[in-house]
Amino acid sequence: PAAVPAGTTSYSGPMSTVPPPTGSSFTPRPAPGVGGTPAAPSTGADRAGGTGRTGGSGGSRPADVPRPVPAADVRVDREPPAPPPPVQPAPTTAAPATTTSTTPVPAPTPAPPAAPGEAVLRADFEGPAYAVTLFSGDSRLGRIDGAGGGVTVDPGTYRIRAVNETMYLNADLGTVTLRAGERRALSIPGSASAVFSVKGEDYTGVRVVIDGRQVPGPYPAQIARIAAGPHRVVYRWLGGAAAGREIADTITVSAGGHFLVRAVPDNEQIVVQQLR
């Protein structure tokens, strides 16, 4: 082939072996037998058919022309990575629906209205309400179950007594006179708590009686609710070293307080101490 001037990119060989363009970063491989690389041995087909690399009628490749670029050496630009998927907002968790209990809450029983020719006695408690039964002498007038409750009675004069055995309540509320259609409020004592003990821990055979009602053991005994006011307390020993001994006194507890009631056998007294 004709000489190619320096600095040009023209090529007169086969089109399948076009060299890379000038300025490319690709470095062509040297042809076999050029630059110290040994040439592959020729075969009989090269000598007979004229398709050898250095001779034959099929044309020859110039020694300074690079071989075709193998597919494995071709640099292929990768496609740009796909953009990341859009960030989906976190699902909003709805607050659980507030459920309302359908269990009916019992309301205080209101005092009945006074019928023509009758009167009403209702209770006002000095603290948390509780059940009381009203008596006039030996006659039972009725039961009040809580705040706002009441009983109906005939007009007249009554000596009222409020009783609750669980709370050791037997309170004389005085005398009232009622007219037809009248509503009268009764002041019911509040409650306290108390512990009944013995100094010296001599509980063998002891019994404690409050207002004529024995306090169940074991001792020392704690009463969660006892009516405020005066109470007659008796310590009685039925066995043990102090069998037959008895200590009695009247104590007073105030509403909302917590008391320690202690029998002192040495001086036969009952001492009351308010703890709170």
Written overview of the protein:
It is a single chain. With 276 residues, this protein is mainly β. It is built from one helix and 15 strands; from the N terminus they run αβββββββββββββββ. The protein has one helix at 44-49; strands at 119-125, 132-136, 139-144, 150-153, 156-164, 169-178, 183-188, 191-198, 206-210, 213-214, 221-227, 229-237, 246-253, 258-264, 269-274. A four-stranded antiparallel sheet has the order 3-2-5-6, with no helix packed on it. A four-stranded mixed sheet has the order 11-8-14-15, with no helix packed on it. A four-stranded antiparallel sheet has the order 10-9-12-13, with no helix packed on it. A hairpin with a 4-residue loop joins β14 (258-264) and β15 (269-274). The longest helix is centred in the first third of the chain and has 6 residues, at 44-49. The chain starts with 43 loop residues before the first helix and ends with a strand. The model is unreliable at 33-60 and 91-106 (pLDDT under 50).
Produce a short descriptive summary.
The protein is mostly beta strands and 276 residues long.
Order of SSEs: HEEEEEEEEEEEEEEE
Quantity of strands, as a count? 15
Strand order of the largest sheet: 3-2-5-6
Strand percent estimate: 35-45%
Portion of residues within helices: under 10%
Biggest sheet details:
4 strands, antiparallel
Query: Quick check: average pLDDT?
Result: 74
Number of helices: 1
Q: What form results from the Cα inertia axes?
A: flat
Q: Unreliable stretches, pLDDT < 50, 5 or more residues?
A: 33-60, 91-106
